[in-house]
Amino acid sequence: MQQSNQKSPTSSWGANIDIVSYGSGIYNTYNPNTYVTSGGTSAAAPMVSGAAALLRSYFPTWKALKIAEQLKVTSDPTFYSVPQNLQYATKLGKGKLDVLKALTDTTSPSIAMLNKTIADNNDRNHLPGDTLRLTGVFKNYIRPATNGVVTLTCTSPYATIINNTFSLGNLNQNDTINNNSNPFKVIIANNTPVNTPLEFKFTITADGGYNTLEWLADTVNRNRMNIDVGNVVLTVPSNGSIGFTNPYATPGAGFSYKDYGSLFYTSGFMVG
Fold this sequence. Notes:
The strands form 4 sheets. Strands 3, 4, 6, 8 and 9 form a 5-stranded antiparallel beta sheet that branches. This protein has 3 helices and 14 strands. About 10% of the residues lie in helices and about 35% in strands. It starts with about 25 loop residues before the first strand and ends in a 15-residue tail after the last strand. A hairpin with a 2-residue loop joins strand 12 and strand 13 (about 230-235).
């Protein structure tokens, strides 16, 4: 992030970002025996790493994941109001690193969604007309959360959500709850084009103004099919390949046995 609180032109963005930090105009040591002003993710990442080390020195019993959650939940989201950042709304993480708040906040919980899954209770081929069931495990890593709620949204016109909320209730530190018995349900439209990407957003809220986002992506009506029989899964694309659509082991499940991952990189079938 630039000193103006704008996203740096060369920085990545997306649903996989947790937190951002300044990465331009950073005064740093340099060989030989001097100082320079540097920038880039190589300057931003050490800012967060240093904050994590400082936080660990204050809370020596905290594990790494709890440290990471504290940094995320206490980050400052106000940079999203900068006009140049509006196009990246919710895609630059929870907020900007705030070391002081990370060291002093004693009230915020931090709930994460783990083990996210999408199932159609059939053949793993998410086709038009299918009902998808989205589940996960929700864990509170830090302080107690009361009246937690998860709300599912999706902006695609090809996804109709018929069960969009799940109540977490009250979660103490390290408590978990899953929605296996009450999954989010999404119907894929009959007119869904081939290889349509869907992005599902889970908004998690709790008392005291707490909120955070989790994401889950899927591609539906794919031009390939997974043959799932017993312990064996094989992807059969529509282009004549076996296992994967292209020669680079993507996309597809390849050929897997007992969920050990694909047993080959590329393959073919010859008849003569």
